[in-house]
Design goal:
By secondary structure, this protein is mainly alpha-helical. The chain has 8 helices and 2 strands. The protein has one domain: Putative cytoplasmic protein, CATH 1.10.3100.
Length: about 160
Amino acid sequence: MKQILNKRTQFDKNFLMSEKVKLLLNSLGLTQTQFSTLFPIDKIKKINQLTFLKTLDSYIESLIIDEIDYHTNNQTNRIILIRFLNDDDFSLYEPEIFEILKSYLVHRALINRTKRAIERTRKKVEIVYMESSFYETWLGVNDFDDSRDLRIIWAEQQLKD
């Protein structure tokens, strides 16, 4: 009987852990397969997958808070978030964040979560998709070097067109 209870307890723990993993993967915008591809098992032991996902989720939460602070400090009425459509652009323009998030798919989840968080403060948020060829042309014509603030200015102009 004790052996049956131990197996049942282990099953319950595994089930709860897998449900937590599924919820975290969903909040990160990834399937298990995508996660395994981006973060190979040899780097992340299966037992530590939940801990790793929690850490990644916490990092995303800190980025959301940073974004809210950025817009609060700049007193902007119109909030624009830039979403990357591929890994190349994401790694080019936000290399530090890309190094941790590893994919534009996770960035999409970050942007969606950030949008929802900012909208809870009753501010309007718009998402602009980074089209690097247009952005690079715009930088060249205006003789600018890339920066976060310039990306926002470019995004505002895209919304006007």
